[in-house]
Amino acid sequence: MTDCDSDLHQGTYVVTGAAGALGEAVAEALAEARVSLVLADADAAAVAASSKRLSAAGVDARAFPCDVTDEDSMRSLAEAATERGPVRGLVTLAGIYQHGPIDTVSGTDWDRVLDVNLKGTFLACQALMPALQRSGGASIVTISSLAGRTKSLVSAVNYGAAKGGVIGFTMLLAAQVAASAVRVNCVAPGHIATPMFHSIPQAARDEIVNGIPMGRVAEPREVADAIVYLLSKRSSFITGQTLNVNGGVYM
């Protein structure tokens, strides 16, 4: 157990998008602190496998298949989390990616990417907020992207719009709930060594890496550690902020 992990409030932590590479890294980082986990994802089989693996290691982890774009599903997620004790943290990792120029983005594409990345963040925060406020000290970490902060060589306009919206949402929500001892911050990763990154054409990936001052993409655990820091008591006077984790691309 690391010092950062030991500074987590004991209680329940909810992670949406938990079956993805970054979601699994966040769950593993939180598991080191022996907190209770509710791992939510649209991929029921994948999130069940993640939960089973952590449970076998002695972690109190529950899988919860859900749809972050559906209000009833998010309310059910909140109920499931509350049953496990005080809800101390929420990480809104659920997201989908699209690349390509504007003429490749249909109206359906626009709606889907905005629904999952932005509306899904809103619905998860809204549903969990009462439980977070009752806990007497909780933290939300939303997930933006380098594409929500500055230009992107490959990301589609709907993805950048959604991730830029997450940053604005984070600031407004942080201001609204600060008095109730709920902090809300955002992590904006650059490129990470995940299947999402490898879906980008090789030539574009090479150009991306060449533009990173540190000369490489991030490992999932490096981003997960930043998320856990913002969940922990070590960041107790930080709210409404966006932490860039991108190897120096955007400063």
Describe the 3D structure.
There is one protein chain. The chain is of the alpha/beta class and 251 residues long. 45% of the residues lie in helices and 16% in strands. It has a seven-stranded parallel beta sheet with strand order 3-2-1-4-5-6-7, with helices on both faces. Strand 4, helix 5 and strand 5 form a beta-alpha-beta unit. The N terminus is likely disordered.
Q: State mean pLDDT (0 to 100 scale).
A: 95
Helix/strand order: HEHEHEHEHEHEHHHE
Low-confidence stretches: 1-5
N- to C-terminal distance: 31 Å
- Please work out how many helical segments DSSP would assign: 9
What structural category do the secondary elements indicate? Answer: alpha/beta
- Radius of gyration, whole Å: 17 Å
Anisotropy-based shape: globular
The tally of strands reads 7
Biggest sheet, spatial arrangement of strands: 3-2-1-4-5-6-7
Largest sheet: 7 strands, parallel
Share of helical residues: 40-55%
* Percentage of residues in DSSP E strands: 15-25%
